[in-house]
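Figure-free illustration: sequence to structure, shown twice.
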Amino acid sequence: MRNNRDRFIAFVMLLPSLILVGIFVYGFIGQAIQTSMTDWGQNPAQPPLAATVIKSFVGLQNYENIMTDTLEFYFRNALVNTFFFTVLFVLGCVAAGMILALLLDQKVVGEGFFRTVFLFPMALSFVVTGTIWRWMLQPGGGVNILPQVLFGLSPIEFSWINSRDVWLPFEWGNVPAYLTMAGFAILAFLAVRYATARRWRASRYAVLAAVVVLLVFAARLWDVVWLPLDTPDAETPIAPKGFNAALVGIIIAAVWQMSGYTMAMFIAGIRGVPEELREAARVDGCSEFDVYRRIVLPQLNPIILSAMIILGHISLKIFDLVFAMAGPDNAKTVVPGLLVYTEGFRENAFAKASAIAVIMLFFVTLIIVPYLWSQLRESRSRGR
């Protein structure tokens, strides 16, 4: 049992780190939030770099502007790009990592060599990866001429990071409906899953949350949060949002670099499954496919969740790979991290850049905090 003296010594040892984290992490986060609620860099009468600049408090005006003003379509496009990039990047890394891990688990000859080869891209920085793949995805060379060089076929004519095609187009005003449907589907799935596992209390909570989501949508409470676009007149067209095809090359490069990381996580999880469980399943008549499906893969669920959380965190903060491959001015590949750079360090619009950074922090928090809470709860239950 720990006594008060041990706790006091531990607190004193941690105090310098806590002070530094409080100042250089949470203090700067607070400063960013405060700056995002001012007009620093937005008021033409107050040069942003002047020593006597006056920063007036404007509340949530910057957030409203970047979400609703027609001239701020870059930010909304960046949010859409981040959504598609995150989904495809996470799914691609998990799928590729799982396939590589399962192949290496077949005790192939030279496993150590292949494992090193698959892990090597992770040792590169995103800047190096972006530079390499930018060369490989040039319209007149690289990947596009491989079919011609290898098989004598016609070269690929896809423009990759220079493409202007938009797939799965949708209107920005319909996003609340899509979010409601997605939230309801997820909660309904959880309710059925909990009910199947006879976790009735959790199932009731999921059903209640699904009902609340539907009531919020039916009562049009979304209109209070999701303000309409500020169009100058009814004839002004608004370009539809969607999956910009220029992101395909960036997603391929990102998956190429991080799939080795997920492979390492999965191969460690697979090797952690006791061989006795596999042998018992084989004795009971399970094929090798059933051994993986019923024994091995269910044991990997916590690892898959951890990989998805880490990859989602990386994708939300992505900056260097996109900067190296497409540059900061490509409207089809813009992400929030690039806007923080261009608005803050090019335009000196520090308040707007801070607002974008705070929104990014909010999305990262939505991913990280529930995961940390579940992990802490699980560790406490194990400690009991």
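We now fold a second protein in the same way, so the two outputs can be compared directly.
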Amino acid sequence: MEAYTPYLWDLGRIAFMFAICLGLAGPLTWAERRQSAMIQDRIGPNRAALTLFGREIRAFGLFHPIADVIKLITKEDTINIHADRFLYNVAPFIALFPALMTFAVVPFGPDITVGGEVHRLQVARMDAGILVVFAISSIAVFGVTLAGYASASKFALLGGLRASAQMISYEVTMGLSVLGLVLIFGTLEPSAMVVAQGELIGGWLPRWGVFVQPLSFIIFFTAAIAENKRIPFDMAEGESEIVGYFVEYSGMKFGMFFMAEYIEITVVAGLLTTLFFGGWQVPYLMDGVEFVNAAGTTIVGTGFHFPWGGQLYTGEWVGAGLRVGAFLFKLIFLCWLQLMLRWTLPRFRYDQVMTLGWRRLLPLSLANLVLTAAVVLLI
């Protein structure tokens, strides 16, 4: 059994990653409908119900995601007779899989020791993890471009061209915005970045990325929403214009594009949490701190060490639970924030999207990088 233990840990980490990505995709579709209804003073989703003991249980519309899945699975899969069948069928997979693979480098908890062995709460730990994120995420461009091209529809082709131009434009800005953090923390490995954010500035302010690189956070967040092709950057879809790279798709192939969008929301939230909000770090929860117990004995372990002098011992396992819970809380909050922006901001014109990316955010990201490099060199 001991020979299989490392593989069981690997399977557990992968299962937890899929539980986050796929498990949040359905509830996020419900949350977006419910949240938009509350903002617009509507009732929202409330028709899907489960009949139990002669009573209808609607559960605030929570059965709607289940009804959506059943509809997509059973819906007829139609293909344009002029479409390129191979590219048409493979495009949804190319759009979906990068979103799932990107989350593999996101650490969702600290390293824990079990039976004398250290286990990481991260699926893939790589020295160049941030570069891997951008390398894998760039593959999604091919999925939306091929979907538009292979559909043999001018509306789909227009959506694909819009999507490819927009995604490539904002990838440059995203990469440059993160380099400032790389200079400050001195690493490309996400887990090492999270550990570095556990330090305090001035003895009280967490050294999170959002505090040391606030402009980088704004640029990265804006570019990430544009990469995800959501309002106000939904040029690739343009529902009011009947334009979209997936306009010719139906059934579960459309469902894969639909799922990819909500998985990307989770991935963006995970990257923002890791890079700018301390990842799994909890303010003032530290390892290797000396505590004095009730018996007057000094112990070294995990617990809260507050700037005003108070202490609270938690132990390694409770501390690990609090940190994983903190990561999930930050993740869900940032998912909610993206949904809020989607129903708050008006839609841009396409020329405004390109102007913002190339003539506003790109120069700002370059200026931020140069300024950060100068400060790091002086310090």
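Summary for the second example: The chain has a mean pLDDT of 86.
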